Amino acid sequence: MNAESFQIIFIYFLIHLNSFVSVAEITCRDDTGQPVDWFVVYKLPRSRVNQSTGTGLEYMYLDSSTEGWQMSKHLVNMTKGAVGQTLEQLYRVYKSNDKNCVYFIYNDAAPEMKYDRYHGHAKGILLLDKTQGFWLIHSVPHFPPFPEQGYGWPSSARMFGQTLFCVTYKYSQFEEISKQLFYENPHVYNLSLPDAFQPELSFLQAIANGSCLTSPPWKRRTKLVSAGGQQFQSFAKYKNFGEDIYAAWLAQALETDLLAETWQRTKDALPSNCSLPQHVYNILRIKLPGSVVFLSHSDHSKWCVSQDYSRQWTCIGDINRTYGQMWRGGGLLCTLNPFIYKAFRHSVLLYRKCIDG
What we know:
Number of strands: 19
Distance between the termini: 85 Å
Shape: globular
Strand content: 25-35%
Number of domains: 1
Structural class: alpha+beta
Order of helices and strands: HEEEEEHEEEEHEHEEHEEEEEEHE
Number of helices: 6
Radius of gyration: 21 Å
Helix content: 10-25%
Low-confidence stretches: 8-23
């Protein structure tokens, strides 16, 4: 082989190596497995108004390319769907025992474990390397399964609606994310945190070791920027905050009245609140494209939007408007993204005003 031929082969190798590295970057992935900066999945409840009962596995999908809700051709328990495609990266890391990656999985209702009321009412997954990764915030109990079991959707999460919000971040953002999680005090049930990620991610290690916040302030707000440049604001509270995060903090901090959709099937659910300058109203009925209508009582998702179309805040998280969860850690991720706002705001079909008007 002459020098010229070797040079051509070497250049060819570098081109394809760079292509492989690009494809292999840890990122949120859409329904076709392609990288996306962020996505939202709204898993539909089994019971719907004026419609035949669904399977409890259908879902609406939203990212910057769809610009609105689209019914997925997949079911949420399929590995070909957006959630399955995204978590497949976790299973590859687990199977290869890759020491160049971190995964951090938390859920107060972890699979195969008793419900944990001591830790925060928080659910999510981190997967990252020294380049980038994703933070998937969701409302799904008993999810995901332990990595050695592969992808699956719990039967307990088929009846009610659920939300999953995935955002891709560069590595530099995960130190801030780990600080937010320290405030949320999540129940971690599976993780891999190699020494190479210390001290940047020391808060993740502290959480895993059972460390807790010991002094105020009991809440933390920070700005995050996705890998694609989308701006977010993260709100996280520790249990000692002792207030409804939606009414006492979120609405006031964002300076907007909020329409809130959270779990209302408990006796200690909080009513709509008009006692503060910015109000919070409980959503009663949701409508999604294709005449999909369901009651809030059939929905386990946690999100809120500005009532006023001029404000356009949307927040998605993992904590409810209940008295008991005033004393639990948790948080929400908020954005002014117009596609996300339009999708959720137009989904509000009916909400409850305050008793005093």
